[in-house]
Records
---
Amino acid sequence: MGWMKTQTLKQQPIAGDDLPAGTFVPLSRYKNIVNFVNDQNQFVYITSNQDFLASNALFLPAINIAAVASLAISSETIVVDQICIDRNKMAIYDSTMNYDGVDFEDFELQLLHLSADESHLFPEKSLIFLLNPANEKLFSSGFDRQFMLNAKKSAGLILSGSIVKGIETIKGTGYGLTPSGDDFIAGFLLGLHYNECRYNIDLSGFREEIYHAALGKNLLISSFLLRAKNKKYFNPLKKILLLLAGASQSSLSEGLQQLLSIGATSGADFFSGYIFPIKHKTGL
Amino acid sequence: MIFKGLIKKGSYYDSVSLMILSKELNKLDGIVDSSIVMGTAENKALLSAVGLNLEVFHDAGETDILIGIKASSLPAAENALQKIDQLFNDLQHHQDQSTDKNVHSFGAALKQLPEANLSLISIAGKYAAGEAMKALKQGLHVMIFSDNVSIAEEYELKQYAHDHELLLMGPDCGSAIINGIPLGFANVVQKGNIGIVAASGTGLQEVSSVISNHGAGISQAIGTGGRDIRKEIGGIMFLDALKVLGDDEETKVIVMISKPPHPDVLQKIADHVKKIKKPVIGILIGGNPEILRQAGVIPAITLEQAGLYAAAVSKGKETGSIDNDLAQRKTGIVALASTSGKGLQGKFLRGLFSGGTLCDETQLVLKDTIGYTYSNSPLNVDFRLTDLWKSRENSIIDLGEDEFTQGRPHPMIDYSLRNKRILQEVSDTDVAVILLDVVLGYGSHPDPASELVPVIHESKKISPAILFIGSVTGTDQDPQNKKNIVRELEKAGMIIMPSNVAASELAGQIIHQLSSKQPSRSI
């Protein structure tokens, strides 16, 4: 039974490809992730699950992350409590996504199929309803309905060309520690990156504008948005995109389930945000 | 209307917990509307639109959690505030425990409770053996909940425990009941004179529940961990547990539960049983019970039968009538299958299990009616699913296996994965029947009906003819209350059978009858 999971010792520690340096203290602890912050308000997290890697994450299989109290990162070493790890001996998580050679038509067809035909797999109250209105019925309380109306208004603004206004409308709204709207925007920024590659255009200025419009006072979310603006892909999303770009259908459902299992609705909101600008060819 | 608000300042809770709390809040009597969201300016604007941006929220920051309540009366609002505060405290307490803030070492734990004589170890597997040895050296019995302890370490620990007359339950021991205290996943059963030794967690739960539900009770239920009966371990703890129960004055009847042990281990168990002067009932799930029969054991074929035999013997009754009753029930199940199967559209069965032993038992039952079934843990290796996330024909899946539980709680606790899988299965037009186990007790989901009922309704929208069959492992004394759970599930249209075996027999019969009606395919 899988009550208490441990990674095997054979697994190699992995460092994200964009780790800030400094001395970090724990900020918040969750089952698979412990967030750390340094005096520059930069965030890093240690994860016990390789699937949750990102550019600012550390996967340390031999360490009980629940008990970690201190973290120091330099260009040469990573020191976790009393344990010093040589960075040269760590594998690197590559957070970039290269769309070269992707059959774009097929990729988009599969992506839209996931949002249309597999929407029942998405958690209730996620923003997938912006792509599949059938999911609207799952919003029941007063706040739910208001949130839904606001998200639809935001989508309407984006579709009518008032993109930054649409982003400002949805940011900071919704459920969870990273509000749904912010997860959606992070996905949206990466969806724009796809459009850049697909249509060979430069939307970097536009991404910058959206990023600034989306910034709030929550530093954790700002850090998350910054990474999306800088085209840094979170592993669960990257994994599913790589599958869409060529792997078998059988592994796709596994990838989707993994992505959708992040947070209450975070993974689903993020993915919805990614698909939205691709579906609507935003930025062209 | 009464509006009340509460702020949890600078608190960090995971999103899933917040969503669960939000659901709990909306269920409370007199609550008309509510919300639990982060205090961003934008969320406050949305709250304003529904009248829930309360004065108390004005100074809240973006990292604060805002809880807004609209209630029909002041007492209802105050009750809800009190309740939500308690739920948050419980959550915080749970998080504190899970992050090991209170006790940082085994030594500190022992200082807090110096009179303890048993240590329950549930930490990352690589540390578990070391902590277990520390506990043994302090003279404590040990239950290791963790998995990923090497077999060499398990042998060393068990040999040490054996030499010092201590019990070492596990590793990967999911269930035990010691002196009436449920450990791990375990049910609230009546106290009695039946002792259980089990190398199977859900097997122990099913048998102890059957015993309790039939008016008998448990003295001790000792889990050994599934690997104890392998050649490398030699059944050290299984044999020691038998000795403990054999010597225990309160124990008058013993039940042994395991998958088929290594032949050498089985022989040792049989030799040991011959020395026990108490009735012993044995079930080797899927194994040949002949060697046990020769040793004087009363062999059972199913977990339910083992429980029923034990309950009868503990009250000085014969077991013959039980076999007659079960045979009669089987006839009834064939008839029930022909009525329940009417109008079904598909032809295949999909079983989605949270209990590993129950999953094995179901496959054994089905083998006799519809043959081998596909599984991630199949009886026949030719029927191993190549893609775990996609069922084939008749498939029985153990969702408690490692591949499904990485990064998420066990499916007895967290139903989300199974719920999604149910919706996936019913979307397949070839599927006629969904078979489920529902395991109650400490450690399991506090209200499985609240998870399953909406999914059953949703499934029927996708596939109106789909049939849900299942069983509920547990007792009316469990925190979830078996009777209530059964009532809720039946109300939703699920057929609940008295045991996993009965549910599997019904599902198998229906599929068998459906396949008999299918036109034969020409080659």
---
Amino acid sequence: MTEPVIKAENLSKQYRLGATQGYKTFREAIANATKALFRNFGKSNPQSAIRNPQSDTIWALKDVSFEVKQGEVIGIIGRNGAGKSTLLKILSKITKPTSGRVELKGRVGSLLEVGTGFHPELTGHENIYLYGAILGMDRWEVTRKFDEIVAFAGLEKFVDTPVKRYSSGMCMRLAFAVAAHLEPEILLVDEVLAVGDVAFQKKCLGKMGNIAEEGRTVLFVSHNMGALSAMCQKGLLIEQGQIVYNGEVKSAIEQYFKRLESRSHLELSKRQDRKGSGACRFTRLTFEDESGQPLNTFRSGQSVRVVLDYESNYNSNLHAVKAAISIDHHLYGEIFYCDSLTTGDLIHEIPSNGRLVCTVDSLPLIPGSYSKSVFLKVGSQIVDWITGAATISVEEDDLYGTGKLPTRGIVLLPSYSWSTVEN
Amino acid sequence: MMKTAAQNLIIIEPKKGWTTIDLKEIWKYRELLYFLTKRDIKVRYKQTVLGGLWAIIQPVFTMVVFTLFFGRLAKVPSDGIPYPIFVYAGILPWTYFANAISASGNSLVGSANLIKKVYFPRLIIPASASLAGMLDFFIAMLVLGGLMGYYHFLPGIALLLFPVLVVLTFVCAVGVGLWLSALNVEYRDIRYAIPFLIQLWMFISPVIYPVSMVGEKYQWLLALNPMGGVITAFRASLLGHQPIDWFLLILSAVIIVLLFLSGVFYFERMEKTFADIV
């Protein structure tokens, strides 16, 4: 069959940001309505009525077009916030596109987050039916596959236990087991393998492979490049809401890393979104490894040198400088802050033009996406401050030589060990 | 075996403004309505000692307190029947209605995770929240049966109207619940307004007093409150102490249908933005 089962044309999705995002209160709505009323009466300055739409909106997807044929397994690749999840949300009808159109042929099953809809007070048995109904299965279908689902999850002994007594891994297994038996013609999967033990991950990948062999179409979002290249024939690389590559999965992954690499140098001189007097400004941000080689990708536990070029309009050397870098996570906020004052560095004068280097011996970050801010103060004056100067993406690394990384916590300790002491 | 693809063409496009209701889609997900309702019922009294007894305790104690204060002390008239049975027959539909609009009004916000991660017709969420309270209502009905036996009330032919009244109460609760839940997604003020609304609404409904207490000139005003006609007819159909006031009831029914339809349309209009703003 060569007919496409998914056909997306010029798909775009715009989100509102800032103060207007999320819910409003009546007070705001009433205030806005009143303002609108006066505006209509006055008709003085129609321009002022329209808020600058650029400043508080963001295009999560912009003019995305692609086709998928039946039986294809497509990997969707991109950095966090690139628009992958938004794309899957549109395809699974959770949210409407702002413009554009998609045609889907066949029953769509989506697995965007495993286990949403489970009720902790209900037993595994009850939750299987509930979750099945949420995913669009009918009772008879669930009954028919019930034993298979329970066996796949390996939870035969716990079917009558309330889910609140399950471990998070057990929940995950149960949810994936239900979803995997949905038998949709098009399956959308978002990053579900990020949790769970290795054995179960393998089982899930195997199941997804089976689904593909049966001629079903799978769209699969993951940061696990190994799984992607093993499972998918084609890859869709998304960057800032646009498809930048659509083709063979191996080349898509290559492209993905290449594009990360091109991010190791960042021009800061043209950045407008900065605070401070501007008497001294950062012009360039470079990441290097310990030997001075530019760094493409970051790995947990890696040593990193952050090189900051700066220029100033002072004629003499700068005194009483405080330079700082902070690392932020989108969920947890500021994770750490390294300033030169606490370590007692740079307390003597520094040249008026030059570069500052901040050396981090071992990056204590768990895999994920972080934003980096840079700050410079001379004397009592803040001269330059760029929030979100760079976004860094930290990839997994076999830091402890066991193939495992901690699954909890927001940072990791690059070096620790356990031992016993005899009494 | 897989169905042929052409049978299942889904088109996703931006939709603006008022849309038609996809009844076929809602029918397809009827199982979900069943399971969500079942979930709400099962979960309600989990890990409580008294369990389903709560469905009886609440209206019975309310009846006792109301009888003491309104019946005995304030001497509120009760259309010539004992005040306890008069007020209990009013508390029953009212309690159901109040619990249902409170539960469904908060239901969408409470299911934010589900809405953001899974697709299904969102209407099912407030509908199931309203439906789940029905069981409590029927449990509490048993006590009314007991009271009727004690006070020797025998329902007449008007009892045939009872199922219709239950459906009307449900439709009214869903209608109000749709409005409140959809508004609540955008304006969190609603969460705080709901308890307040319920309290005020009870006082303008003939729960603790009969319609006859209000001067004849203003009785039609009571009918504008759709629960007014329903509660009055509810009492008359079960206790048979007075004829059904058809004018009041039909007026209420018309308002309920309008409330429901407008609720459905407003809900459908807002539905597509729920996942983005909830």
---
Amino acid sequence: MIDIMDNKPRRRPFTIAVASGKGGTGKTTLALAMALSLANSGEAVALLDADVEAPNAHLFLKTEPGQALEATLSVPQINETRCTGCGKCREACAFNAIVMICGKPLVFGELCHGCGGCRLVCPESAIEEVPRTTGWLESAETNGLSFMRGRLKVGEAKSPPLIRTLLKNAPQRDWIIIDSPPGTSCPVIAAVRRADFVLLVTEPTPFGLNDLKLAVGMVRAVGLPFGVIVNRAGLGDREVQAWCRKENIPIMMEIPFSRDIARTYAGGGTLLDADPDKMKVFVELALSLAGRGA
Amino acid sequence: MKQLVILSGKGGTGKTTVTASFAILAGSCVLVDADVDAADLHLVVKHEVRESDNFISGKEAVISEELCSSCGICRNLCRFDAITEDLHIDPFSCEGCGVCARACPAEAITMHDSDCGRWFISDSAFGPFVHARLHIAAENSGKLVSLVREKAREEAEQKGIGLILIDGPPGVGCPVIAAVTGCDAALIVTEPTRSGLHDMKRAAELTAHFKIPTFVIINKADLHDETARDIETWCSAKGIKTLGRIPFDSAVVEAMSSGKSLIELPEAPAAAALCNIWREMLSETELLNA
């Protein structure tokens, strides 16, 4: 017997990253709603929680994902019998992760970016690279979708390598929805870099607008197609909408502020629990972004 | 000199609103916006910039197309996927390690200083205000946080001010670590949501790691009473004192929209709650007795 599903031509995944400059605007809420709506309509979806410093999506999927992979960074280890103390490794390190103490190199693993430069310059082949754990990839098949998250080890400074590992190991499905970290610097770039479309979530307040402008600057600099979702519309003013109009930025959706939605979220419910009719709207939005609209 | 950092783990719980109000309640302090990625404190603190400069940090590789022999060695060595298939540098991925420049047999790659942002020292009604703007998609946010904190310490020493108030970034990564190290106390602003609780635990784990006395307040507390109680239960089990609850109050957004801090709307219930929390904070710590 032939498995029809298996013979279905797989399309290249379409990746939507949900991001924002300001934290707490509703990234997780919207990424979940988008992923669950697609999964519900029979699409093959992977949801990635790339907010590895504060990963929350699993709380709403009511699942404790199991460990899939330990995420590591390669840091140097000095073979002391071979090391002659020439100091070339210290000179090569752009991140001050190697210091010379009493004529011998000492490695500060937490400053190391894992570039491998020290090993390349060592004339004695005295440097080996050993893995240092920066976090974990954890996954679950749940709610009709494939979920994977990165979880940064508390006390670990660098999240971008973990985010890149997450994206590289993501389950390959027709849709990849990424819940990004907040901000506009390296962790966000790592999360949105390869997305086909970025949904920027904001709230209609002066903080929301200020941080939206930064986020728009970020996606424009990287050259990614994007649109805006205004969450909690009606809470503050209309400045966000006015600015988007002026800048010719499409507003893909407005979600009115409601204490009901806020309370549902607080208790661990999703936007779709509060408003099931939204499911259709998210599926239509996703299909139109992927060029599969009706 | 004492330093208090305001954290949250989860973004959008009210760090900036709380910090701006504390500055007014303190009367005199050095105020720091350490959320250099998405700085908002300057929107609600009236200030005049007195001093500012570029933040140059780290390096960025540049390939000379004339000298490049297209051997691809750089691309094979780069661990950051920062060299494209057609052998161009992707500046958003380049971390400035210099491996490519050293390995290039044609010497076609040079390392250039990277302009990552701008920092400011401003004057406000209650004292110096140190803030910064990381350039879009720039690196080194942690170093910029360390720099603004250094400037703040200098200001405090020169002017004999005993308190530094730091508005922290969300998360627990590099800029947050730079914002909390060496602080005398940390106040975590959380909200009664499952995410708020989850991320507060991670923030508290971080401050415990750095052995910083930690306090918690619950913003928008009446949104979900059960979760608010869960937060208080978890904190008390961990020996962390919750200093109070702030009710959900539309005055928070009103204040923001008029460029004011919440405490400047004294009739607002949330403002009254904040005043009590500040008094609690003072009785629990030695913040004003430096």
---
Amino acid sequence: MMNSFLRTGGLAVALFACASLFAATHTERFTRDFPLGIGGSLWIENPVGDVEVIGVEGSTLSVSVTKNVNAPDATSLGEGREQTQVYMGGDGKAFVVRTVVGAPPGAKWKSNVSYSIRVPRVAQVHIVAAVGERIRVAGISSAVTVKNFSADITLENIAGAVTVDTTNGDIHFITDARPAAAVQLSTINGGIEVQVNPDSNLDWIAQSISGDVRTNFPVKGRFSGNGFRGLVNGIGGPTIATTAVMGNIFMLKRGGRQDEIKSLRAVIENSGGPTIFKKTAIETPLVQGNFIYPASADIVSFNIGEIRGFANIATAAGQVNLGTVMGDVTVRSGGGPFDFGAVFGVINAHTDAGEVNVGNAYKGGEISTSGGTLQVTFSGGPLTLQNGGGDIVVRHAASSVSAETRSGDLSITLDPNSRSQRITAKTTKGNVFLAVGQRFGADVEATVLTSNDEANPIHADFNGLTIKRDQFNGKTRIRATGKIGGGGEKVELYSEEGEIRITQR
Amino acid sequence: MNHLSDQELMRIVQAGDLSPASEIYDRYSGRIYNFAFRFLKNAEAAEDAVQEVFVKMIKYANQFHGDAKLSTWLFSITANWCRDYLRKADNKSKETEDVLISLPAPLEHGPDRALEQREDELRVQRALQALTPEQREAILLSRYQGLSYAEIAQIAGCSEGAVKTRVFRAMETLKKALTTETRGGDRWLNAVQ
Amino acid sequence: MAECSAMRESFPLLLTESLDARSRELTHQHIESCSECGAEWLATKETWRLMEALPELTPPPRMRQRFLAEIGVEEKPVESNILSFPKRTWARWLSQAAAVVIVAGGSYLYGHRTQPVRLAPQQATLNSIQPVSIAESRVVKSSALSPNIEGRPDIENVQFIDTNPNDDEVSLSFDITQHMTVTGNRSDKSMVQLMAYVMQNEDKAQPSTTRAIDIVKQTYANSHQPEPEIAGAVARVLRNDEHEGVRIKAVDTLKTLPTATSETREALIAALKNDPNPAVRIKAVDALAKIAASGQLDQAAVDTLRQKAMQDDENLYVRTKAAEALKKLNP
């Protein structure tokens, strides 16, 4: 009985081991040697996996390949092995190493191929790799290019020209020597670290919209726009261009002291010069008093629940979300949407790009965007709205409104109890809709300029408007004028290539 | 209807009358079929491409502007279709199949010559497949369709400079494959594992 | 050396005779004076010649039949059988009685599902929607309509009714030659076509794209049922509409639709690259980021996002958004 149990148990374990054997990784390793002449070039294309290339003496190219396939069962393992192919070939001058993975959508298997390559150090090295953890190239005296999506890239002791382009990876460029050839490193979301001989002379360009630029070298230069350009040590060196759109950039002495590293941003801020951008977010549920974020060139996003005093914000770019503000709101942004819940003071807000959403603007104000939809749910004071491109919507206006958009629809609904309000609404491409209450009275002047000479684009739920048509600048101009509800404040509506509707609710 | 220009025919289609469809089809189906076949190296896909391109032409006739060349517009749709086709991983295995086009050999040549021709044909076809899709698109449009770089740029959605580079790179690769390779073998890249 | 490579790049242009006289002359002079380029030129010419080996194929005749069948054109078309819709302006629409956009029941049931319905010369033989006086209103089930719309009829006063937001039934009413209300399931082919059409219906006298796009957003946003037809129509609005407010709405709507076709991706890429309105570009990045998150992003989109993140003169917010979108990508 006991024996039988053990045997069965043993069998189960054996079966489990078999199953997990298939679920495990299948690995193949092999190495191939090829001749590669002086002045030859090596091209590596690897969409999946790491790449290491090390320069050696001689004229032999040696490629070691590790191919891994992961699959839950034997069939997909076989398919994965078959669909993951390594190709190599070339002549004495150019040699290509290429991984081709034909994974169909929903394939159960996953594969990666990593290369460890020894190449004559005088050869050029070109690597295109999509996803991997690491790319390392070392000891090459000729040109190196790397194009990649997400691996960390390390280049060590490369004497030739270097171009590295990655989206999400970090770049490390390290050399004991003084660079003599041009180096160009760029990443979007990663950072860049350069370590060179302390005696190097370099013409250094560093660009980042939200990272810092730090160095322990003596540098001389200046910021313009998002970038720094200056000399490391002195003149006479090659250009080293470093772009990390969102990340930090370090330019360091090889073997130098950590505590000497200084932020150029801090140095320049202290000397009163312009600054570079650094992204931060300010999030807080409550500000007891006034909230002041002084004019800065930083990219800052704000998310604040309530401000008991006034708000005064200037940001280079970023979202501004303010829940309730008891005082006035003054906001300037180089780009990014605004969302204000309830503002008890006067609003004065402008963004260079993005939507503006205002819940209650109890005292009205001036709001503008260079492009985006502009919406105000309620306004209790005089409101001026300007839009460089996009619709303007005011859902409940209890005071005067002046709204203008370059291209977009204008829709304004007045307080149903209002007897008269001054309204100006103008769009140079789009429609104008105005909804008024039963008791509303005004002197109306509605104009549509259109290239459709048969159009009848002005509609009103009122009698008493006189319609005139004439030609203006080669277009048809239709004007409706007159008093509604016995007359009152002036209502001026203007549309090009659209229609105007005045409805009564 | 064959005396009408492409633009005139399209205006009729835009007005909702589809009768010029067959005339437009006759004018361009051959060029589109050849382009798609050479691009994809798959006869079935090339047939689908032609079908889709002309159906799209009818469906989106209103997007055609009279100041553009119909051929450029049609090749744009075709190139898009082909790029999409290649993008679908399902189709990758089909790309690699060698399709021997069976054409009757001209009578004046013996069977040897015919065989040689087939081999040449295959070598070119195979060499074209070794190019990146962008290079292949550019060289096919330039070499076989006689389009200008400006037109190709419009179709490929890139600059004329990029077209120039693509054609040049394509020619470099083709040169290696066609002038240095011995007949009957693809020595450039070999599967090793 | 730099000169050599520039010259060599011009070789294909020399072969197609596309170089201007001066460049042609310069290139020839160079070929004659530089032995390496001379050899390259000969090799290029030889390659060009070898490429002739590809035969010109003739498409099989069945393809022609397949195409003409799909668009409903017969080999010898009887033109009088096709009633197309002339473009009308609103002032004349009252007098338009005969043309009917979507023709109904009977012919549909007789199996013309994939072909546009053509009106017979005698309209009186159709038993469903007859030309009627404008005063008449009619309610039609979308399932009884042909999904194909003939010609480019003008439809006006489009209204949208969604009586019960919890079911998929919607109604669309509009004026054509009569006041018509079409009701049906939002995923019904005819309803989809009609919605797509409404959105692209150009009517200068009464611009309705804004409203139509709102309707479409309301009907199809976050729906569980992907409608590529709708996505395609919105994409075309995004590409083509001159009205910035409309394009902002279109890009917003694209983001909320469950489908990402290659057409929508391309429209978003084009918008991100070229739209002058920064809000459109911001929303295009958002929409591409959403597509990216679902793993449907292609190389062209990634390249455009990269280019935007790098572009010095782009709005900082757009650049930041593009970088953020790339960060989320997992190819």
